[in-house]
Amino acid sequence: MNSNIDEKLKQKFLNQAQKLLISSGKSIEDLQTLFRTIQQSDQYPYFQHIFKSTEVIPCDEHKYEIEYLKRGQAAWEKRIVKSLNTMCTEVNLPLARRRNESEMRSVRRHWNELGHISGDLNRFRPVYSAKDFLDVICVLVNPNLKIDEALWNSGLIKIPIVTKSFVEIKAFYSDLCPNIIQYCSDETFNEAKEEENIKLALQILEKKLNIKSVREYARRGCPSSLRGKLWSAMLNIEHCNWHVTYFNYLKQNVIDFDLLVDNLYFKDVKLTAVNDDQLFVFEDYLYQMLLLFSRDTYVQACFTASASGCQPTRSFIKKKSGVEECSVVYPPNGIIPFYGFSMLVAPMCFVFEDPVHLYFIFRQFYIKHFFNLHHISAAPNAIIGLCVLFESLLRQVSSELWFHLQNIQVQPLRIAFKWMMRAFSGYLACNQLLALWDRILAYDSLEILAVLAVAIFVLRKGNVLKESSETAIEAIFSDISSIKVIPLLQFFLGS
Amino acid sequence: MARVRCCTDLDKTVLTQNFDKRFWMTVNSDEDWNFYWASVTTVRAIFNPSNDHPRLTDNQVINHFPNHYELTRKDLMVKNIKRYRRELEKDGNLLAEKDDYGSYKYLDFIPVTYMMPADYNLFADDFRRDPNHTWIMKPAGRAQGKGIFLINKMSQIKKWSRDGKSVPSAAQPRETYVISKYIDNPLLIGGKKFDLRLYVLVTSFKPLKCYLYRLGFGRFCTVKYIPSTNDIDNMFVHLTNVSYQKQSEDYNSIHGGKWSIDNLRLYLEGTRGKKLTDRLFDEISWIIVHSLRAAAAVITSDRHCFECYGYDIIIDDNLKPWLIEVNASPSLTSTTANDRIMKFKLINDILNIVVPNGDIPDIRTKFSNISSSPEALGNFDVLYDEDQASCELNDKDFREQKARGGIVPLISKTGMPFGKTKQSSAWR
Amino acid sequence: MTTELNFKEQAFLQIQDRPNAPFHSGCKMFTWTCNQSPIKNFTSIEFVNEYTAFLSIKIKQHSEDFGPSKILSNHLDEWHVLLNRYQLMESCHGEIGSNRHMILNQKQFTFMPRAIYQIRFFLQQPSPIWKEFSIVNVQIHSQSSLSKDRKPSIERLLASTLINDDQMTETTFTKIPLITELSQHLQAMWTICAKMHQSDYGSDRIKRFDIDGSYDVQILSST
């Protein structure tokens, strides 16, 4: 129970001790000398104090740890690993290897057009898609649940998570009600008002008030010229020199090592962003971002933060199989990408031009939010919670629509799932998408994704009620690029 | 109500579908027509005085001005703009103000250009002053990137002129070329070069009335831009023309390398800020107005005519726009699904403006009839309306606006100030 | 000191007048009685929840003045409420908190008993959607008479982390990278560590993913 907390503290302490020893310049022979040195240091009282004051406390961290979901995530991860291994054997390439000199030179030379270093991508295919993941979520069943058909037969998700009711959602997103002027609802915003708003944003940013005040502001959307600054503030990223150092460190890792997952990223960009009429221009940025990302061990933090108790996949470096000290996390960031992963970065290219800045924003956004979109957990912000929220909101808001779809045996979640898993990226016009993502940061929650998905169903309800085949329903929702997100949400939340 | 009799000598579905949508009657060009969407060659023939073509009646409109080439031929456009600048300067117009380096503050919007071979000596002088610069040679009368090449050595231009002389020139006189300073610091997005294609509809040159289409786009090169001289022969790096880029193996047929103006604005606002972005788009509007006013002096503003121009503009990395050329017949061939929709809308909106309400056109009421309600304009915005531009601005206001880096209003020759038109809102 | 509790008595509470009702009351009572000496210097109760929504705890305090034989009959020795309807699940119909590992201590308890003789857990689960509800691995922690501090001490920490000399095995480096390359990496690491420390990032999060410059991975092992 407490090992977790202790571990952190222990690490911190050991690092401190190490520093201390290095700076003391003494060579330490045995434990006693070591201990004396530490005792004499001025940090000793501090650590003594925090060790004593660290309470053996009951912690809330574990409330999202649900046994069968943990097992579900583990089984799912096992499946991905298996399919990655199969691919590995098929293409006859190692998962990771050190590049030789000439390859390193080539990567360095093509750093700004990394597409050039990708090999034959025909042999690669995405490891999993949104559909695969949904299928996995659908079959998760709580063994302790009385499957009362009457209670659980409608809807795809059988996991009893209690989500916000429509009334609670309305209260939570009260700033999105129709009579509050929003950015991005175009017409209502006149130039004078806009200028006033920009001035206000600048004031808030300048005063460096707390995150809360920035969020408060961003609830009504970010002016596109200040979005970068506001996002940085909300994600608590202050651009500094060490970012550059770290960026270059990751870059060096890209130069040094060739990872099989790189090909998955290349393939993904080619399949998605390159064919997107809004995002294709950023192709080369995306390669950089994704390859750096795959080598960033800091990203592993999302596993601890998610509190679902799951850990990233580990493997063993060559010829050291089974030796615990030689186990490594693969890929270094612990994330195996799915089909469409690159769409989670791509829209951010509209906001940040500097690759370093872009990288750290993306990383933080991912760790805080997007990771939850493809991780099995009971947390309300994670994908299962969003699915349950989607189904329950749709039932509450329009039972007519819900039962029509149940009658013709169409599961609306099958349509909405891919939208949510990609946070709508690639489905909406970019200015609309960014306005949506503003709200994710401002409300510090992904729930808006489920709300928007329901709103889209309600918007096209008339068409849906006329149709009775699955393909016809799918056709209605195949193109949602004309949706004006904020006015729609305002309409929906005001209803 | 009589149906409009229309005809076209181009086989473009975006045209015929728009005709069909209006239930217009398609007729042959030798029949009695009301609306003719014709190629430039046909229009030249119709307006040729030696031609026995009957004079156009009051109920006929056609899609080109008789001497549109004053604007759309590269050499003539440059000539007219140079003349326009000189005239403004002679009149002491504020717009012709020059900066400390002797270049125009507001009218320096085309790259330095010379006619070849006529201005050869002027070019040679200029080249010697700055021998490191790259220049671009373009045949004055051709389009779609044909015959274009880059040079950065004097020897190359000498070779070109030698080769030209060796060709027997009796049957075909030497084609005129323009040579322009190559914009070697273009704004790159995602490391790639692009130019803007904007559609401008002119319904009259005297008085000038023009509209700007909102759904313009950026055209991207498929290859990363590298400003090195090694790549001078790889035209995929330099030329953004879709017809040219299509030959590249990296050409994507889903979007065709086209990026909407809205996305460009979103990107620039996000990465460069709103002020600079607004200024850029305002400057673009002014470039168009200036170029049209420059041409207005010499173009026959025939009341039967309207014309839709394709403006090619390059933005450099200081966010300064440069006018590269104006096309008289922008391509109506669709490269992608979105392109098709956009071009269909373009023709649709043009027809709504030049043939209001789908009535038989009558050029005697050409201007009184046009409703200027935003709905009637579709995706067009009025860019400049000489008749209506009568908003009072005294010198003080003018200076204030200028100081704010905002819109600099156009001042007429007579000193009578013209108002600011729908400039900035045109881009929302 | 830790005492594990095994409940002999696990009873559903019946609804008084309907002992044979087709539904259960949603309330259980677990009782545990101290066999030997009572638990003194009690500090906390640890357990893993299994779908219990609310928990109440009552104890019988052992009054030290009484001998064990007298206690059973002594009416003064009443049940005292240690914890009243403590919420374990965020919503009784939802997963959250259902598998939670809990440690309850002084902060949650109404009072800190001197000694425990008998303890009763009242489990409530009003939601009908669950098959079972319970709490498992129940442990009572108390400070042993020596009052040994359970909290980590610097001494113990160091001792447990360092490996004794005789346990160290000789590491043989077969391939040592070029010294320039090595120093390049080291310097990068050094800078980053330093910067990491200055910033808010916990230094525990930054680590190299390779081992001695090697990251040759052939196959993923599913763990």
UniProtKB/TrEMBL annotation, chain A:
UniProt cross-references to SMART domains, sorted A to Z: TBC
SUPFAM superfamilies associated with the record: Ypt/Rab-GAP domain of gyp1p
Gene3D superfamilies in the record: Ypt/Rab-GAP domain of gyp1p, domain 3
Alphabetical list of PROSITE patterns matching this protein: TBC_RABGAP
Sequence ranges assigned to domain Rab-GAP TBC in this UniProt record: 221-444
Protein name per UniProt: Rab-GAP TBC domain-containing protein
Origin species: Adineta ricciae (Rotifer)
From TrEMBL, chain B:
InterPro entries given in the database record: TTL/TTLL_fam
Reaction(s) this enzyme catalyzes, per UniProt: (L-glutamyl)(n)-gamma-L-glutamyl-L-glutamyl-[protein] + L-glutamate + ATP = (L-glutamyl)(n+1)-gamma-L-glutamyl-L-glutamyl-[protein] + ADP + phosphate + H(+)
Pfam family, one: TTL
Gene Ontology CC annotation, any one: ciliary basal body
Origin superkingdom: Eukaryota
Subcellular location: Cytoplasm, Cytoskeleton, Cilium basal body
PROSITE patterns documented for this protein: TTL
Swiss-Prot/TrEMBL keywords: ATP-binding, Cell projection, Cilium, Cytoplasm, Cytoskeleton, Ligase, Microtubule, Nucleotide-binding
GO terms under biological process: microtubule cytoskeleton organization
Keyword Cytoplasm: yes
Molecular-function GO term, any one: tubulin binding
Parts of the chain that traverse the membrane: none
Homology family: Belongs to the tubulin polyglutamylase family.
Subunit relationships: Part of the neuronal tubulin polyglutamylase complex which contains TPGS1, TPGS2, TTLL1, LRRC49 and NICN1. Interacts with PCM1, CSTPP1 and LRRC49.
PANTHER family the record matches: POLYGLUTAMYLASE COMPLEX SUBUNIT TTLL1, TUBULIN POLYGLUTAMYLASE
Protein name as catalogued: Polyglutamylase complex subunit TTLL1
Organism (species): Adineta ricciae (Rotifer)
From TrEMBL, chain C:
Domain of life, per lineage: Eukaryota
GO CC terms, sorted: nucleoplasm
PANTHER family tied to this protein: NICOLIN 1, NICOLIN-1
Protein name: Uncharacterized protein
The species this protein was found in: Adineta ricciae (Rotifer)
Organism ancestry: Eukaryota, Metazoa, Spiralia, Gnathifera, Rotifera
